[in-house]
Design brief:
By secondary structure, the protein is mainly alpha-helical. The protein is built from 4 helices and 2 strands; from the N terminus they run αααββα. A two-stranded antiparallel ribbon has the order 1-2. Helix 1 crosses helix 3 and helix 2 crosses helix 3.
Length: about 90
Amino acid sequence: MSIRYSQDFKDSLVKLHQEGRSLKSLAEEFGPSKDSIAIWVKQATPIMIKGQSKTLKDVKQLEKRLAILEEENEILKRAAILLAKK
């Protein structure tokens, strides 16, 4: 059974890592695995996209939103074709 950690908890460990704490020491003190903490750090690390700083988490949220909008667009196109045939 996996443990669910709050976003605040994850953010606090990421901040501690960014301040110089090792993944190993954080894992030993707070409980999550080093791999889990490394994933959280990677998700929170800013990347530059077209001159804007985004995190991997931001990019994934944008990709999900894009997929929803593309699906909605297809539905609207089909509806427009059906209405034009009437």
